[in-house]
Amino acid sequence: MSIKYEPLYVDYLVYFNRDRDYFECHEVLEELWLALDREPVYKGLLQVAVGMYHFRNQNIRGAQLMLSSAVQILEPYPDQILGIELGLLLTSCHDALEKLHSDQSPVPYHDFTIVITDEELEEAVFQRSKEIKPNIPQRRSPTRGKVYEERMKALGQNSSSS
Predict the structure, then answer these.
(1) Which residues lie closer than 8 Å to 105 by C-beta, 6 or more apart?
(2) Residue 66 pLDDT more than 50?
(3) CA–CA distances in Å: residue 45 to residues 76, 130, 132, 142, 162
(4) Residue 79 scores a pLDDT above 50
């Protein structure tokens, strides 16, 4: 595993590009975002995944809100950051938002791919993809991480007893 990139960020890229599992993207990147004192670039990437989750499920309002917020957060950053083509990702977000604001129903959906520019990151994602098994079927609610643990504690449930 690469030391240059956070392991949860590498996992996010595996779930985003290989599995199109936007819910799991949210889970792993939220964990990283919280661990890194709510670093805005990770919040923006997290919101792209949440927007895609809503878009795929035809929750048009949710997709509009999340992708718009992601664009607002990510636009100040350079086109290439964290080993990815952020500029291309933002173009994909703008294109999706244009569709989401059209009068078409249902809105034609398509997945995004985050283009990786750093060879070390690309190799880390490739190696990690051999270790991570896809969630089939994809999850629709949290089952890991600090937020999940706190929710289970509040409900008086022990999450490790499953």
Answers:
(1) none
(2) yes
(3) 13, 23, 20, 18, 31
(4) yes
